[in-house]
Design a protein that fits this description.
By secondary structure, the protein is mainly alpha-helical. It has one domain (2-82). 51% of the residues lie in helices and 12% in strands. It is built from 4 helices and 2 strands; from the N terminus they run ααααββ. The protein has a two-stranded antiparallel sheet with strand order 1-2. Strand 1 (68-73) and strand 2 (78-82) form a beta hairpin. The longest helix is centred in the first third of the chain and has 14 residues, at 2-15. The radius of gyration is 15 Å and the shape is flat. The two termini are 18 Å apart. 4% of the residues are buried.
């Protein structure tokens, strides 16, 4: 569960930094790639970024997406959050 949450957080963080043409390229790659190739394509490495800056950016992204942050531990780099929605509402796409 932690792996999926971390992957989700990192995905939310870095999708906003992709240029428009890179988003179209990512969509084409996502349609015809294996899971390992997708993960490799989505992974980025940055130089000289401290943990506090990354944690702050991740918290901002989660809150912008409507998540409620329940717990954040900057020493471990762990963020726990939840998002509630009404499953009976047909306008929400769950997939």
């Amino acid at each position: 569960m932690k792996k999926y949450l971390i992957l989700l957080l990192v995905s939310f963080l870095f999708i906003g930094f992709l240029p428009l043409n890179a988003k179209a390229k990512a969509k084409n790659v996502a349609q015809s790639s294996t899971q390992l190739e997708k993960r490799t394509f989505q992974t980025r490495t940055f130089d000289n970024i401290d943990k506090a800056t990354v944690m702050k950016a991740m918290l901002n992204v989660l809150q912008d997406e409507g998540f409620i942050v329940n717990n954040a531990n900057p020493l471990l780099g762990f963020i726990s959050g939840s998002k509630e929605f009404d499953v009976s509402d047909k306008t929400i796409n769950l997939s």
